[in-house]
Amino acid sequence: MTKDLLSINDLKDDLASVISDSIRLKTESGPKKSSKKSSMSGKNVVLLFEKPSLRTKASFAVAVQQLGGNAVYMSPDEVQIGKRESVSDVGKVLSRYFDVIVYRAFSHTTMVELAEAASAPVINALDDLEHPCQIVGDLMTIKEKKGDLKGLKLAYIGDGNNVCNSLLLGCAIVGMNISVASPTNHKPSEEVSNKAKELTSKSGSNVDILTNPFKAAENADIIYTDVWVSMGQESEREEKEKVFLPYQISEKTMSNAKPDAIFMHCLPAHRGLEVVPEVIDGPKSVIFDQAENRLHAQKGMLLASLK
Question: CA angle at residue 194 from 191 to 199, to 5 degrees?
Answer without folding.
Answer: 125
